[in-house]
Amino acid sequence: MEGVKMKQGKRVKPKFPIEYRLLITPKVKEREKKIVTLFALRTVNEFTNFRYEIIVEPEVNNHTMLFKIRGLRAPQVTIPAVGPATFSAEYDGLNGSYDVIISKHAKYENKFTVNINKEKIVVKEIPNKRFIEIVTDENEW
Prior knowledge:
This protein is an all-beta fold and 141 residues long. 0% of the residues lie in helices and 57% in strands.
């Protein structure tokens, strides 16, 4: 078998790979004894040196929630850690149908429509070509 060259397989890269996962879920705030809606964003890829922070500019306007991803930031404490980059925000008083728009690098945008109430979150519409996956259960995040 000497001299026989094996064909190298080509890795087919998806046109729109999933880069982020967004969790939207009700969360009980024990201290205040109220229910808020948690929006938690993480990278699909995990980092081996630090737990980076995703820099996000959130905007809430009526029933539209816009999250602009600006990049990653190294943690303030430089203790080595393994894991995804993350961002989270909690919102009080959300109820009804919302357009959730995630944009990255001011170029790409994914728009989801979700129904939010104190008991559950229901995803109504998802884009065909997306870089983000949306989940409503912490076990899937």
